[in-house]
Amino acid sequence: MSGNKVFLTQAQHDIEQWLEMLNSQRYLSEHTLLAYQQDLLKLATFLAKAHCQSWNELNRKLLNEFVGPLLATNSLLPISVQRMLSAIRSFYDYLATQQAVNHNPAKAFTVKRQARNLPKVMDVDLVNQLLDAQAPNTPHAAKLWIRDKAVMELLYSSGLRVSELSHCLLNDIDLSSALITVTGKGNKTRVLPVGKKAILAIKEWLKIRPDFVKADTPNYLFLNERKGRFTERGIQQALAHQAQRVGIPQHLHPHLLRHCFASHLLESSQDLRAVQELLGHASISTTQIYTHLDYQHLAQVYDKAHPRAKK
Question: Which residue, of 61, 96, 112, 152, has the greatest Cβ tally within 10 A?
Answer without folding.
Answer: 152
